[in-house]
Specification:
The protein has helices at residues 10-20, 35-44, 64-72, 87-95, 108-119, 133-140, 162-172, 177-184, 188-202, 207-216; strands spanning 2-6, 28-32, 50-54, 77-82, 100-103. By secondary structure, the chain is an alpha/beta fold.
């Protein structure tokens, strides 16, 4: 496993290195401390499994670096680390294609869970950054019915937005993310956000589970 760390605080970088050995003692970890360094890491290690990215870096403004990295490596899982802990920031990085958002104040054991979850293909959002399940569903484009942000099922039919239904139909046809982007004229980050919303709505962790659940809820997905 290969992981990239981008943070300008050496103590945090070293702490993350130590933490990652709990996931994989043989993990190959590479680090950079600024925006140009992050771009070099991407060029040198295109096969990386995960990047832990601090947004507040020298040479970067707001989410500019994240946008650049997602554009250059859309399939790379990027877990954003930030000292800013508000729902707007969470929504913004997810819209741009990040695989999750964690505050720097997060306990190490919870951070490990977040990293494992992202590596397994999930999108991590700290529950305490969501005021309630309804607000969280609205933020992420999820229906307020079906399954709430804490994963609790409710007893009514899952209702998707029109765009989510379009994405669902393409998923049912086996279309990869890049094809869905082209068919619908959407960015990769936007499509990934819709796919994540669909998975969460159906309580699924992958495409197959989502399609099976959609069929159970009456969607014509073959």
């Amino acid at each position: 496993m290969k992981i990239l760390i981008v943070d300008d605080h050496s103590l945090i970088t070293e702490a993350l290195r130590a933490l990652l050995t709990d996931i994989d003692p043989q993990a190959e970890v590479h680090a950079a401390a600024d925006a140009p360094g992050a771009e070099r890491l991407l060029e040198q290690h295109p096969d990386a499994d995960l990047m832990l990215l601090d947004l507040g870096l020298p040479g970067a403004t707001g989410t500019s670096l994240l946008e650049t990295l997602v554009g250059r490596a859309p399939d790379l899982k990027i877990l954003v680390l930030s000292g800013v802990q508000d729902q707007r920031s969470v929504m913004r990085v997810l819209q741009l294609g990040a695989a999750g958002f964690v505050p720097k104040s997060m306990a190490s054991d919870t951070l490990l869970e977040a990293i494992r979850f992202v590596l397994s293909g999930g999108v991590y959002i700290p529950a305490d950054l969501l005021e309630d399940s309804t607000r969280g569903a609205t933020m992420l484009g999820l229906p307020e019915r079906g399954r709430d942000m804490l994963g609790q099922p409710v007893s009514v039919r899952v209702e998707l937005t029109e765009r989510q239904e379009q994405v669902l139909q393409l998923l049912a046809r086996g279309a990869p993310i890049k094809i869905i982007c082209r068919e619908l004229g959407l960015s990769e980050g936007t499509v990934k956000t819709h796919v994540t919303a669909i998975y969460r709505a159906f309580g699924a962790s992958n495409r197959t589970e989502a399609l099976l659940a959609a069929r159970r809820h009456g969607y014509d997905v073959g």
